[in-house]
Amino acid sequence: ESSTFDGNKARRLGGAIHINGSSIVIKDTTFFENTSTDGWGGAIMLYEGNLEVSGSSTFEGNSAAYGGAVFTYSSEGSINETTFVGNIASWRGGAITMHQSTLEVSGS
User: Fold this and answer.
1) Residue 11: is its pLDDT beyond 90?
2) Is position 105 within any domain?
3) Is residue 47 part of a domain?
4) I need a surface site. Which of 54, 71, 74, 84 has the fewest CB within 10 A?
5) Which keywords appear in this protein's UniProt record, sorted alphabetically (predicted)?
6) Is 75 inside a domain boundary?
7) Distances (CA, A) of 14 to 61, 70, 106, 107
8) What pLDDT does residue 1 have?
9) Nearest to 36 by CA among 106, 88, 105
10) Which residues span the domain enclosing 76?
11) Number of domains in the chain
12) pLDDT in tens, 17-74
């Protein structure tokens, strides 16, 4: 809660955070210019887990091949009251890419 992830980098899975088979709750958090250089989820990569993002969180300037800000695989969750600005994917989903996933997005 109330955290900043700025300028983090990973080659493949989640520039700032990689979650595998777990759940994460993110509130009032900023993800700024994080990068997954050759892979998935510039800020967050979620595999077989649950993602809850809320409370005026921001994803800005993140980049990846797939899911400039967020990539989910076989996952579920919700994104509420969240801002996505200037995120970039070289292949798919500048802000979000989902594969076999369910995300509820509201107020964002």
Assistant:
1) yes
2) no
3) yes
4) 74
5) Cell outer membrane, Membrane, Secreted, Signal
6) yes
7) 14, 8, 23, 24
8) 79
9) 88
10) 4-100
11) 1
12) 999 999 999 999 999 999 999 999 999 999 999 999 999 999 999 999 999 999 999 9
